[in-house]
Design goal:
By secondary structure, this protein is of the alpha/beta class. It has seven helices and nine strands. The chain has one domain: 3-Layer(aba) Sandwich (Rossmann fold). Strand 1, helix 4 and strand 2 form a beta-alpha-beta unit. Helix 3 packs across helix 4. It is globular. It starts with a helix and ends with a helix.
C-alpha cells in the first residue's frame, strides 16, 4: 500500500515537472487574468505546450482547427500545422468584412461581447477541434460552440491551457472531450 502511494506521488511529481513550461505563465498581472504569452517566446516551451494540447486527439478525427480570437489563433494555428489541417478563425464582433454568424455572451469581466464566424466557412458534418488559451466562465467557449454547431459543424474536442471550475465549464467538460493542461494536473494532484 505504501509503495503504491509513493509511486502515485512520484508519478504526479513527474507530470508536474514535465509541465515546467507552465511556470512561464505570468500571474503578476492587472485584473484577474494571467498572461500566457511568455510561453510563446520560448520555442521548447511552446512546442511542449502544443504537444500536450494535442495528445488525446487523432488527426483522422478532425477536418479543421477553430481558434478563438486572439490567443486561440496562436495556439490553434500551431495545432493546425501540427496536424496538417486548415485553421478557421472565430473572431470578435466587427472584425470580419463579410456576412457572418454571430453569438453574444457575457465575458469574465461582466461585459457584453460577441463572437462571429464567416457564414459558410464550416460545412455540415465538418469535424472541428476547438481551441482557446484559457476558459474562465465558459461563456466565450459556449458562444464558439454555438457558432460551430449552428453552421453544422461537429465539435470533436476542446483543448486549452486551463478550464476554470464553474457550472458552464463543467457542463462543457461533460458534453465534449476536453484537454486542459492545468485542469488535468489539478485533478491528479487531488488524488
Amino acid at each position: 500500500m505504501r509503495w503504491a502511494a509513493k509511486n502515485q506521488i512520484n508519478s504526479i511529481i513527474t507530470e508536474i515537472e514535465m509541465k515546467e513550461y507552465l511556470r512561464l505563465i505570468d500571474t503578476n498581472t492587472k485584473g484577474n487574468r494571467n498572461d500566457v504569452t511568455p510561453i510563446f517566446s520560448n520555442p521548447d516551451a511552446f512546442s511542449q505546450l502544443i504537444h500536450d494540447l494535442v495528445v488525446p486527439f487523432d488527426k483522422k478525427d478532425m477536418d479543421y482547427i477553430c481558434g478563438i480570437d486572439a490567443l486561440g489563433f496562436i495556439i490553434g494555428t500551431a495545432i493546425a500545422i501540427w496536424f496538417g489541417k486548415g485553421f478557421l478563425p472565430i473572431r470578435k464582433r466587427g472584425k470580419l468584412p463579410v456576412s457572418v454568424e454571430e453569438r453574444e455572451f457575457v465575458d469574465y469581466s461582466g461585459e457584453n461581447k460577441a463572437l462571429e464566424i464567416r457564414k459558410g466557412m464550416i460545412k455540415p458534418g465538418d469535424r472541428i477541434l476547438l481551441v482557446d488559451e484559457w476558459i474562465e466562465t465558459g461563456a466565450q467557449i459556449q458562444a464558439a460552440i454555438e457558432l460551430i454547431e449552428h453552421e453544422g459543424g461537429k465539435i470533436i474536442g476542446i483543448t486549452t491551457i486551463n478550464i476554470d471550475n464553474n457550472p458552464i465549464a463543467r457542463e462543457i467538460k461533460n458534453k465534449y472531450k476536453c484537454q486542459a493542461i492545468i485542469d488535468n494536473i489539478s485533478k491528479n494532484i487531488a488524488l
